[in-house]
Task: structure prediction
Amino acid sequence: MTDQATRGLEKIWRRLQMAIGRGRVTTGDDGGNVQMLQVQMPGEDVRDNTPRVAEYGFSSMPLPGCQAIVIFVAGERSNGVVIGTNDESTRPTGLAPGEVKVYTDLGQSLYFSRAGTVIDCAGLPLTILNAPSVKHDGVEIGKTHRHGGVQSGGSNTGTPV
Result:
């Protein structure tokens, strides 16, 4: 192989090695059309204003210190995109295959388990907005529901009608 071909392969190999990296989120900005993160890569390499892409319909703001996987287009370190984040300290474990859990660091979660769906508010209020009706098993339980057998005083009401 010629020296020129060897140098060319070495250049390609260096670019490939630079194409993917792992770092830690240090801060971010969720105010624009694309979330921008600052990521501390190994050593002194800090990537400012690195865009983060997420799956359609899901949005989150990673906590400082969480892992970030960054791809660098064509191995160019000035052209990075965060494609994944993970916070080992708050990630729920023990899910069965096919289960899904959306969660926060405060303990709130929406859990689609094999046994059913669980909403855990972690002691925080639950607010339902813009719902003209809230039903449980077909019975209205929202602000327009009524009860039969209402009596004054400390008596119990009948079931919702």
In short: The mean pLDDT is 90.
